[in-house]
Amino acid sequence: MATNGLAQRMTVVAAAVLFCAAVATAEVGGAIQPSFLTEPTLIKHREGESVTLPCAIRNKGPYIVVWKKDRRVISAREVIVARDTRYSLVDGYNLRIASVRPSDQSSYTCSLDTEPLTELTHRLDVLYGPVVTTRPFGGVLVLERGNQARLECSAAGNPKPTIFWRKQMGLLPSGEAQHAGSSYTISEVTREMAGVYECVAQNGLGRPEVGTVSLQVQYPPEVEVEKSVVYSGEGFKAKLICFVFADPPATVRWSRNEGALQPSRHVPSEEVLGGTRHVLTIGPVQMADFGTYSCQANNFLGTASGRVVLSGAPGQAHITSRPIGTAPDSYQLSWEVRSYSPVLEYKVAYGLGKRMNSSTENRSASWREVLVPPTGSEVVGDTLYRQQIPLTKLRPATTYELHVQARNRHGWSAVSDLFHFSTLARGEALESRSFGSSSPRRRLHPVLQLLYVITFLLVPALIAGSEGNGA
Predict the structure, then answer these.
(1) What is the DSSP letter of 116?
(2) Which of 153, 241, 329, 411 meets the CB 3.0–4.6 Å disulfide criterion with 313?
(3) What are phi and psi of 263, to 5 degrees?
(4) pLDDT tens for residues 25-46?
């Protein structure tokens, strides 16, 4: 009996030991297997913001927690081993990155050194505005006129930026205000196409980013004179002006066909205004100064010149009378002309207009020329001469053409611009000519004239008669 009782007790103890061992083994196996409370996440943040990558662990146990960026270790246990001071661990093993940069965009893994490894990977997407790179990299493209220009740029950014080209001043050579794409090609450059071109990139983050390329077009000089003839007089000062366009800048000098320049009275100067404005100041003008001058420019690509005549003759006359006469058979002509020497005489030539005489030969033969002495001229400010004369024996209701010249001791002026005037019809009032139009060539139709007479003369009389009968 004692033996059986002891055996039973031993059996119970053994069973209890086995049970405790099994329970202990199960507890140990369950407690040391860690897991993550956080799911893998795609995290988006703007450049400059701070971001926290979560790594919450259940049942960490004795295992070591390691953060890695791709394959580079950031932290081990509670220690940051990376040199970047923007990394820190917060609230356990959450990884904080301060002031994120585009270079921070990557995969970040929180791992425990279990067997096999237990890992949690987040993807950090850094949003940032465009960053533009232009080509050529120096931002300056130098070409000779006629060559092809290719402007290129690229833009980094997240989201991916859109790109277009524009010119800083005015339209693109193609006539567009903008050209979409990362490149812009000009088949043959001219000097007018030179300037600053802008590559604009935008992706909705902040302001658009702009990169520039300065297109410099090299070409031989081009010379333009402000006035081909400059009028002056003895004792006055004269300025001859030319504009020189060239790249590289041209060397400019003035010369005189009739002789050498005198430095004391022929003074060159220059101003930059779009091109280069070159001025030769002559003063006081002497008789020997009248003649032809050249503005000559040259660079390594070529040479060009422009000519200016300094003349003492009168300038071109300007007709100041109205194009509609005040009489059927005469016209009061008036004009003015600038002359730095006293006017000696005028020449007035006039004849029928094109509608009245379509034959060129007949027109020339039918024209009359009148030489007019300066008697009675009004002189304004020593150089402006005003004169008027009546033209008589004209046809009624007729259009004429005329031009005027003036002469001083240096010669005749250029012929004035062709001027048209018309005479009135017999019995026509000046007011009727300007009633319907300000044009000098239009006349009221006779039927309309008759209607005006009926309206303004007969109708009031009829009204007055009817009122008298009613009384």
Answers:
(1) S
(2) 411
(3) -55, -30
(4) 334 344 568 999 999 999 999 9
